[in-house]
User: Fold this.
Amino acid sequence: MTDASSWRTATVVDARQVGSHGRILHLRVSEWPGNLAGQHVDVRLTAEDGYQAVRSYSLASAGSESTLELAVDEVPDGEVSPYLVEDVQPGDQLEVRGPIGGYFVWTPEHEGPVQLIAGGSGIVPLIAMARIHARSVSAAPMRLLYSVRAPADAFYADEVDGLAGEGFMLDWAYTRTAPAGFPRAAGRIDAATVSASTIPPGEQPTVFICGPTGFVETVADLLVAAGHPPERVRTERFGGT
Amino acid sequence: MSVISRGFGARRRESNDRLPPGQYLTEDFPVLSAGPTPHVSTEDWEFAVVGLDGRRHTWTWDELHALPVDTITTDIHCVTRWSKLGTQWRGVSLDHLLERAGADGAFTQVHSYGGYTTNVPRADLSGGKAWIAFEFDGQPLAAEHGGPARLLVPHLYFWKSAKWVRGLTLMAADEPGFWEQNGYNMYGDPWKEQRYW
Assistant:
Protein backbone atom coordinates (compact mmCIF):
# COMPACT_ATOMS: atom_id res chain seq x y z
CA MET A 1 0.00 0.00 0.00
CA THR A 2 1.32 3.40 -0.89
CA ASP A 3 1.24 6.43 1.37
CA ALA A 4 -1.57 7.98 -0.62
CA SER A 5 -3.92 5.06 -0.01
CA SER A 6 -4.21 5.36 3.77
CA TRP A 7 -6.79 7.49 5.55
CA ARG A 8 -5.38 10.33 7.65
CA THR A 9 -7.14 12.28 10.36
CA ALA A 10 -7.72 15.90 9.42
CA THR A 11 -8.69 18.66 11.84
CA VAL A 12 -10.60 21.68 10.61
CA VAL A 13 -8.58 24.74 11.61
CA ASP A 14 -10.47 27.39 9.69
CA ALA A 15 -13.80 27.61 7.85
CA ARG A 16 -15.03 30.73 6.13
CA GLN A 17 -17.89 31.38 3.78
CA VAL A 18 -17.09 32.19 0.17
CA GLY A 19 -19.41 33.14 -2.66
CA SER A 20 -23.10 32.74 -2.00
CA HIS A 21 -23.10 29.03 -1.10
CA GLY A 22 -19.52 27.92 -0.67
CA ARG A 23 -16.91 27.57 2.01
CA ILE A 24 -13.14 27.49 2.17
CA LEU A 25 -11.87 24.95 4.68
CA HIS A 26 -8.36 24.63 6.03
CA LEU A 27 -7.53 21.16 7.29
CA ARG A 28 -4.47 20.27 9.31
CA VAL A 29 -3.23 16.80 8.41
CA SER A 30 -0.30 15.18 10.15
CA GLU A 31 2.33 13.50 7.99
CA TRP A 32 0.80 14.81 4.77
CA PRO A 33 3.25 13.93 1.95
CA GLY A 34 2.59 17.15 0.04
CA ASN A 35 0.77 17.42 -3.26
CA LEU A 36 1.02 18.77 -6.79
CA ALA A 37 -1.14 21.62 -8.03
CA GLY A 38 -4.31 20.15 -9.51
CA GLN A 39 -4.50 16.97 -7.42
CA HIS A 40 -7.50 16.03 -5.29
CA VAL A 41 -8.31 14.19 -2.08
CA ASP A 42 -11.00 11.82 -0.97
CA VAL A 43 -12.81 13.17 2.09
CA ARG A 44 -14.46 10.63 4.41
CA LEU A 45 -17.12 11.53 6.97
CA THR A 46 -18.23 9.09 9.66
CA ALA A 47 -21.45 9.50 11.66
CA GLU A 48 -21.69 8.45 15.31
CA ASP A 49 -23.39 5.18 14.33
CA GLY A 50 -20.59 4.31 11.89
CA TYR A 51 -22.32 5.39 8.69
CA GLN A 52 -19.77 6.76 6.21
CA ALA A 53 -19.76 8.82 3.04
CA VAL A 54 -16.82 9.70 0.80
CA ARG A 55 -16.48 12.37 -1.89
CA SER A 56 -13.57 13.78 -3.85
CA TYR A 57 -12.52 17.43 -3.64
CA SER A 58 -9.86 19.30 -5.54
CA LEU A 59 -7.13 20.92 -3.47
CA ALA A 60 -6.58 24.67 -3.67
CA SER A 61 -3.29 24.15 -1.85
CA ALA A 62 -0.15 22.64 -3.30
CA GLY A 63 3.41 22.03 -2.23
CA SER A 64 4.80 20.70 0.99
CA GLU A 65 2.64 22.37 3.62
CA SER A 66 0.55 20.14 5.86
CA THR A 67 -2.48 22.43 5.99
CA LEU A 68 -4.76 21.53 3.10
CA GLU A 69 -7.23 23.92 1.56
CA LEU A 70 -10.55 22.88 0.04
CA ALA A 71 -13.16 25.19 -1.41
CA VAL A 72 -16.51 23.46 -1.38
CA ASP A 73 -19.54 24.54 -3.36
CA GLU A 74 -22.80 23.35 -1.85
CA VAL A 75 -24.68 20.89 -4.04
CA PRO A 76 -28.44 21.20 -3.44
CA ASP A 77 -29.76 17.87 -2.14
CA GLY A 78 -26.17 16.79 -1.54
CA GLU A 79 -25.13 14.59 1.31
CA VAL A 80 -21.57 15.72 2.04
CA SER A 81 -21.23 19.26 0.70
CA PRO A 82 -24.07 20.74 2.84
CA TYR A 83 -22.28 19.38 5.92
CA LEU A 84 -18.96 20.88 4.84
CA VAL A 85 -20.55 24.23 3.90
CA GLU A 86 -23.07 24.66 6.72
CA ASP A 87 -22.20 22.42 9.66
CA VAL A 88 -18.52 21.69 10.14
CA GLN A 89 -16.67 23.97 12.56
CA PRO A 90 -13.03 24.53 13.53
CA GLY A 91 -11.96 21.71 15.81
CA ASP A 92 -14.09 19.09 14.09
CA GLN A 93 -12.40 16.09 12.55
CA LEU A 94 -12.76 14.16 9.34
CA GLU A 95 -10.50 11.95 7.25
CA VAL A 96 -8.67 12.49 3.99
CA ARG A 97 -6.82 10.22 1.62
CA GLY A 98 -4.50 11.24 -1.16
CA PRO A 99 -3.14 13.08 -2.97
CA ILE A 100 -4.81 11.56 -6.03
CA GLY A 101 -4.38 12.23 -9.73
CA GLY A 102 -1.43 12.43 -12.07
CA TYR A 103 -2.84 14.10 -15.18
CA PHE A 104 -4.69 17.31 -14.35
CA VAL A 105 -1.56 18.73 -12.69
CA TRP A 106 0.92 21.50 -13.41
CA THR A 107 4.48 21.77 -12.13
CA PRO A 108 6.92 24.69 -12.57
CA GLU A 109 9.32 22.44 -14.48
CA HIS A 110 6.82 22.66 -17.33
CA GLU A 111 8.17 25.67 -19.22
CA GLY A 112 5.54 26.21 -21.93
CA PRO A 113 2.71 28.74 -21.70
CA VAL A 114 -0.31 27.73 -19.64
CA GLN A 115 -3.91 28.78 -20.11
CA LEU A 116 -6.25 28.17 -17.18
CA ILE A 117 -10.01 28.37 -17.71
CA ALA A 118 -12.33 28.11 -14.71
CA GLY A 119 -16.10 28.01 -14.48
CA GLY A 120 -17.47 28.74 -10.98
CA SER A 121 -15.93 26.52 -8.32
CA GLY A 122 -13.79 24.99 -11.06
CA ILE A 123 -11.26 27.60 -9.96
CA VAL A 124 -10.08 25.35 -7.09
CA PRO A 125 -7.44 23.16 -8.82
CA LEU A 126 -6.50 26.11 -11.04
CA ILE A 127 -5.83 28.51 -8.14
CA ALA A 128 -3.45 25.86 -6.86
CA MET A 129 -1.59 26.04 -10.18
CA ALA A 130 -1.61 29.86 -10.13
CA ARG A 131 -0.27 29.91 -6.56
CA ILE A 132 2.56 27.53 -7.38
CA HIS A 133 3.32 29.61 -10.46
CA ALA A 134 3.47 32.80 -8.38
CA ARG A 135 5.68 31.16 -5.78
CA SER A 136 8.13 29.65 -8.25
CA VAL A 137 10.64 31.27 -10.54
CA SER A 138 8.89 29.66 -13.50
CA ALA A 139 9.28 31.62 -16.71
CA ALA A 140 6.16 29.97 -18.13
CA PRO A 141 3.58 32.61 -19.04
CA MET A 142 0.25 31.83 -17.39
CA ARG A 143 -3.17 33.25 -18.15
CA LEU A 144 -6.45 32.68 -16.34
CA LEU A 145 -9.94 33.13 -17.75
CA TYR A 146 -12.39 32.92 -14.86
CA SER A 147 -16.10 32.72 -15.66
CA VAL A 148 -18.66 33.34 -12.91
CA ARG A 149 -22.31 34.26 -12.94
CA ALA A 150 -21.78 37.50 -11.04
CA PRO A 151 -18.90 39.10 -9.11
CA ALA A 152 -20.27 37.87 -5.76
CA ASP A 153 -20.09 34.26 -6.92
CA ALA A 154 -16.32 34.25 -7.42
CA PHE A 155 -14.10 32.25 -5.13
CA TYR A 156 -10.75 33.90 -4.36
CA ALA A 157 -11.69 37.14 -6.16
CA ASP A 158 -9.18 39.37 -4.34
CA GLU A 159 -6.39 36.84 -4.57
CA VAL A 160 -7.03 36.25 -8.27
CA ASP A 161 -7.00 40.01 -8.94
CA GLY A 162 -3.73 40.25 -7.04
CA LEU A 163 -2.08 37.65 -9.25
CA ALA A 164 -2.37 39.76 -12.39
CA GLY A 165 0.94 41.22 -13.40
CA GLU A 166 4.14 40.23 -15.09
CA GLY A 167 3.95 36.64 -16.25
CA PHE A 168 0.27 36.27 -15.31
CA MET A 169 -2.65 37.59 -17.33
CA LEU A 170 -6.14 37.63 -15.92
CA ASP A 171 -9.50 37.80 -17.68
CA TRP A 172 -12.91 37.74 -16.02
CA ALA A 173 -16.07 36.69 -17.79
CA TYR A 174 -19.51 37.22 -16.20
CA THR A 175 -22.37 35.14 -17.50
CA ARG A 176 -25.33 36.91 -15.82
CA THR A 177 -24.28 40.19 -14.17
CA ALA A 178 -21.15 42.13 -15.03
CA PRO A 179 -19.88 44.96 -12.79
CA ALA A 180 -20.67 48.51 -13.92
CA GLY A 181 -18.33 49.61 -16.68
CA PHE A 182 -16.95 46.12 -17.34
CA PRO A 183 -15.97 46.01 -21.03
CA ARG A 184 -17.44 42.58 -21.82
CA ALA A 185 -21.24 42.27 -21.72
CA ALA A 186 -22.61 39.51 -19.46
CA GLY A 187 -23.00 36.24 -21.34
CA ARG A 188 -21.59 32.80 -21.79
CA ILE A 189 -18.09 32.30 -23.14
CA ASP A 190 -18.20 32.25 -26.93
CA ALA A 191 -15.66 32.15 -29.76
CA ALA A 192 -15.04 35.89 -29.48
CA THR A 193 -14.27 35.57 -25.76
CA VAL A 194 -11.89 32.69 -26.40
CA SER A 195 -10.16 34.70 -29.10
CA ALA A 196 -9.86 37.85 -26.95
CA SER A 197 -9.11 36.30 -23.57
CA THR A 198 -6.90 33.25 -24.02
CA ILE A 199 -3.39 32.46 -25.22
CA PRO A 200 -3.66 31.80 -28.97
CA PRO A 201 -2.99 28.31 -30.32
CA GLY A 202 0.10 29.54 -32.18
CA GLU A 203 1.87 29.93 -28.83
CA GLN A 204 1.19 26.27 -28.09
CA PRO A 205 -0.18 26.60 -24.56
CA THR A 206 -1.20 23.70 -22.41
CA VAL A 207 -4.82 24.39 -21.45
CA PHE A 208 -6.49 23.32 -18.21
CA ILE A 209 -10.29 23.70 -18.07
CA CYS A 210 -12.30 22.97 -14.93
CA GLY A 211 -15.96 23.58 -14.26
CA PRO A 212 -19.46 22.15 -14.63
CA THR A 213 -19.94 19.67 -17.47
CA GLY A 214 -21.80 22.00 -19.83
CA PHE A 215 -19.21 24.75 -19.35
CA VAL A 216 -16.27 22.44 -19.99
CA GLU A 217 -17.93 20.83 -23.03
CA THR A 218 -18.62 24.23 -24.60
CA VAL A 219 -15.26 25.79 -23.86
CA ALA A 220 -13.22 22.74 -24.89
CA ASP A 221 -15.12 22.57 -28.20
CA LEU A 222 -14.47 26.30 -28.79
CA LEU A 223 -10.75 25.85 -28.14
CA VAL A 224 -10.48 22.91 -30.51
CA ALA A 225 -12.40 24.89 -33.14
CA ALA A 226 -9.96 27.79 -32.60
CA GLY A 227 -7.08 25.49 -33.48
CA HIS A 228 -5.84 24.11 -30.16
CA PRO A 229 -4.80 20.46 -30.58
CA PRO A 230 -7.08 18.31 -28.36
CA GLU A 231 -4.08 16.60 -26.75
CA ARG A 232 -3.00 19.91 -25.21
CA VAL A 233 -6.44 20.58 -23.69
CA ARG A 234 -6.96 18.93 -20.30
CA THR A 235 -10.36 18.92 -18.68
CA GLU A 236 -11.93 18.24 -15.33
CA ARG A 237 -15.72 18.25 -15.07
CA PHE A 238 -18.27 18.04 -12.30
CA GLY A 239 -22.02 17.54 -12.25
CA GLY A 240 -24.14 15.64 -14.72
CA THR A 241 -25.98 16.08 -17.95
CA MET B 1 -10.76 3.19 13.70
CA SER B 2 -12.40 6.08 11.94
CA VAL B 3 -12.77 9.47 13.55
CA ILE B 4 -16.33 10.68 14.07
CA SER B 5 -17.29 13.85 12.23
CA ARG B 6 -19.42 15.69 14.78
CA GLY B 7 -22.97 16.18 13.56
CA PHE B 8 -22.55 14.38 10.27
CA GLY B 9 -25.29 12.09 8.98
CA ALA B 10 -28.43 14.21 8.91
CA ARG B 11 -28.72 14.03 5.13
CA ARG B 12 -27.60 10.47 4.63
CA ARG B 13 -28.55 8.63 1.49
CA GLU B 14 -30.53 5.43 1.47
CA SER B 15 -28.45 2.30 1.37
CA ASN B 16 -28.91 -0.27 -1.37
CA ASP B 17 -27.51 -3.79 -1.69
CA ARG B 18 -26.62 -3.10 -5.29
CA LEU B 19 -24.23 -0.31 -4.33
CA PRO B 20 -20.59 -1.37 -4.08
CA PRO B 21 -18.70 -0.04 -1.03
CA GLY B 22 -17.99 3.69 -1.06
CA GLN B 23 -20.47 4.45 -3.85
CA TYR B 24 -23.55 6.68 -3.78
CA LEU B 25 -26.59 6.67 -6.03
CA THR B 26 -27.16 9.30 -8.68
CA GLU B 27 -30.10 9.85 -11.00
CA ASP B 28 -27.95 12.18 -13.09
CA PHE B 29 -25.36 11.02 -15.62
CA PRO B 30 -22.04 12.70 -14.80
CA VAL B 31 -19.48 13.21 -17.55
CA LEU B 32 -15.79 12.56 -16.89
CA SER B 33 -13.25 12.97 -19.64
CA ALA B 34 -9.61 13.98 -19.66
CA GLY B 35 -9.92 16.22 -22.71
CA PRO B 36 -12.26 17.68 -25.30
CA THR B 37 -15.05 15.48 -26.65
CA PRO B 38 -14.13 14.01 -30.05
CA HIS B 39 -16.95 14.25 -32.57
CA VAL B 40 -16.86 11.16 -34.78
CA SER B 41 -19.38 10.57 -37.56
CA THR B 42 -20.79 7.11 -38.08
CA GLU B 43 -19.63 7.23 -41.73
CA ASP B 44 -16.03 7.57 -40.59
CA TRP B 45 -16.32 5.26 -37.59
CA GLU B 46 -14.46 1.96 -37.70
CA PHE B 47 -13.73 -0.68 -35.07
CA ALA B 48 -10.54 -2.74 -35.32
CA VAL B 49 -9.40 -5.83 -33.43
CA VAL B 50 -5.69 -6.55 -33.79
CA GLY B 51 -4.70 -10.10 -32.89
CA LEU B 52 -1.47 -11.24 -31.32
CA ASP B 53 -0.40 -12.27 -34.82
CA GLY B 54 -0.67 -8.63 -35.89
CA ARG B 55 -3.64 -9.26 -38.16
CA ARG B 56 -6.20 -6.46 -38.18
CA HIS B 57 -9.92 -7.21 -38.39
CA THR B 58 -12.22 -4.23 -38.97
CA TRP B 59 -15.92 -3.42 -38.90
CA THR B 60 -17.67 -0.37 -40.31
CA TRP B 61 -20.73 1.11 -38.57
CA ASP B 62 -23.05 -0.86 -40.86
CA GLU B 63 -21.05 -4.08 -40.44
CA LEU B 64 -21.26 -3.73 -36.67
CA HIS B 65 -25.01 -3.27 -36.83
CA ALA B 66 -25.33 -6.40 -38.99
CA LEU B 67 -24.16 -8.43 -35.96
CA PRO B 68 -26.64 -9.54 -33.27
CA VAL B 69 -27.64 -6.56 -31.13
CA ASP B 70 -28.29 -7.07 -27.40
CA THR B 71 -30.42 -4.99 -25.06
CA ILE B 72 -28.59 -4.62 -21.75
CA THR B 73 -29.98 -3.44 -18.42
CA THR B 74 -27.21 -2.96 -15.90
CA ASP B 75 -25.82 -0.96 -12.98
CA ILE B 76 -22.76 1.19 -13.63
CA HIS B 77 -20.15 2.40 -11.13
CA CYS B 78 -17.71 5.28 -11.55
CA VAL B 79 -14.45 5.43 -9.61
CA THR B 80 -15.44 8.99 -8.59
CA ARG B 81 -18.08 7.22 -6.46
CA TRP B 82 -21.37 7.67 -8.27
CA SER B 83 -23.38 4.64 -9.28
CA LYS B 84 -26.38 4.55 -11.54
CA LEU B 85 -28.74 1.60 -11.29
CA GLY B 86 -30.73 -0.08 -14.04
CA THR B 87 -29.25 1.79 -17.01
CA GLN B 88 -30.49 0.68 -20.45
CA TRP B 89 -28.19 0.14 -23.40
CA ARG B 90 -28.14 -1.48 -26.82
CA GLY B 91 -24.98 -2.83 -28.34
CA VAL B 92 -23.03 -5.72 -29.84
CA SER B 93 -21.31 -8.26 -27.63
CA LEU B 94 -17.50 -8.26 -27.85
CA ASP B 95 -17.74 -12.04 -28.21
CA HIS B 96 -18.69 -11.61 -31.88
CA LEU B 97 -15.62 -9.45 -32.52
CA LEU B 98 -13.00 -11.23 -30.41
CA GLU B 99 -13.67 -14.61 -32.02
CA ARG B 100 -12.22 -13.27 -35.29
CA ALA B 101 -8.86 -12.58 -33.65
CA GLY B 102 -8.03 -16.15 -32.56
CA ALA B 103 -7.63 -17.39 -29.01
CA ASP B 104 -4.21 -15.85 -28.20
CA GLY B 105 -3.66 -12.87 -25.91
CA ALA B 106 -4.87 -12.81 -22.34
CA PHE B 107 -4.86 -8.99 -22.17
CA THR B 108 -6.15 -6.14 -24.29
CA GLN B 109 -5.43 -2.47 -24.76
CA VAL B 110 -8.58 -0.64 -25.77
CA HIS B 111 -8.15 2.45 -28.01
CA SER B 112 -10.42 5.45 -28.46
CA TYR B 113 -10.81 8.29 -30.93
CA GLY B 114 -9.04 11.15 -29.19
CA GLY B 115 -6.19 8.95 -27.99
CA TYR B 116 -7.62 7.51 -24.76
CA THR B 117 -6.54 3.97 -23.85
CA THR B 118 -7.43 1.49 -21.12
CA ASN B 119 -6.31 -2.08 -20.42
CA VAL B 120 -8.82 -4.86 -19.78
CA PRO B 121 -8.12 -8.59 -19.48
CA ARG B 122 -9.58 -10.51 -22.41
CA ALA B 123 -11.61 -12.70 -20.05
CA ASP B 124 -13.46 -9.57 -18.88
CA LEU B 125 -14.49 -8.70 -22.43
CA SER B 126 -15.74 -12.16 -23.39
CA GLY B 127 -18.49 -14.48 -22.21
CA GLY B 128 -21.30 -11.91 -22.52
CA LYS B 129 -19.70 -9.40 -20.12
CA ALA B 130 -18.89 -6.54 -22.50
CA TRP B 131 -20.40 -4.71 -25.47
CA ILE B 132 -19.82 -2.02 -28.05
CA ALA B 133 -22.76 0.17 -27.00
CA PHE B 134 -24.35 2.75 -29.27
CA GLU B 135 -27.68 3.47 -27.59
CA PHE B 136 -28.43 4.71 -24.09
CA ASP B 137 -31.95 4.95 -22.72
CA GLY B 138 -33.47 4.41 -26.17
CA GLN B 139 -31.48 7.18 -27.83
CA PRO B 140 -28.27 7.22 -29.88
CA LEU B 141 -25.39 7.60 -27.44
CA ALA B 142 -24.56 11.31 -26.96
CA ALA B 143 -21.05 12.45 -27.86
CA GLU B 144 -20.19 13.54 -24.31
CA HIS B 145 -21.05 10.03 -23.11
CA GLY B 146 -18.86 8.42 -25.76
CA GLY B 147 -21.05 8.40 -28.85
CA PRO B 148 -21.27 7.20 -31.49
CA ALA B 149 -20.04 4.08 -29.66
CA ARG B 150 -18.37 3.25 -26.37
CA LEU B 151 -17.21 0.12 -24.68
CA LEU B 152 -19.56 -1.12 -21.94
CA VAL B 153 -17.93 -3.30 -19.26
CA PRO B 154 -20.38 -2.83 -16.38
CA HIS B 155 -18.67 -5.15 -13.88
CA LEU B 156 -15.58 -2.88 -13.77
CA TYR B 157 -15.29 0.81 -12.81
CA PHE B 158 -16.58 2.88 -15.67
CA TRP B 159 -13.21 4.32 -16.79
CA LYS B 160 -12.69 0.86 -18.35
CA SER B 161 -15.81 1.45 -20.49
CA ALA B 162 -13.83 3.52 -22.98
CA LYS B 163 -15.77 6.29 -24.73
CA TRP B 164 -15.42 6.90 -28.50
CA VAL B 165 -14.03 3.40 -28.83
CA ARG B 166 -12.22 2.54 -32.06
CA GLY B 167 -10.64 -0.82 -31.39
CA LEU B 168 -8.54 -3.06 -29.25
CA THR B 169 -5.19 -4.77 -29.43
CA LEU B 170 -4.63 -8.21 -27.94
CA MET B 171 -1.52 -8.50 -25.78
CA ALA B 172 0.37 -11.35 -24.12
CA ALA B 173 1.19 -9.22 -21.06
CA ASP B 174 -0.78 -6.55 -19.23
CA GLU B 175 0.17 -2.92 -19.86
CA PRO B 176 -1.35 0.17 -18.24
CA GLY B 177 -3.61 2.47 -20.25
CA PHE B 178 -4.19 6.20 -19.77
CA TRP B 179 -5.69 6.44 -16.27
CA GLU B 180 -3.75 3.38 -15.17
CA GLN B 181 -0.56 5.37 -15.86
CA ASN B 182 -2.07 8.32 -13.98
CA GLY B 183 -2.94 6.82 -10.65
CA TYR B 184 -5.73 4.32 -11.21
CA ASN B 185 -5.81 0.59 -10.51
CA MET B 186 -4.80 -1.90 -13.22
CA TYR B 187 -8.05 -3.90 -12.89
CA GLY B 188 -10.78 -1.80 -11.23
CA ASP B 189 -13.25 -4.11 -9.47
CA PRO B 190 -15.88 -1.86 -7.80
CA TRP B 191 -16.77 -4.52 -5.22
CA LYS B 192 -13.14 -4.64 -4.05
CA GLU B 193 -12.77 -0.84 -4.28
CA GLN B 194 -9.82 -1.14 -6.65
CA ARG B 195 -9.70 2.59 -7.30
CA TYR B 196 -6.14 3.78 -7.22
CA TRP B 197 -2.65 2.34 -7.11
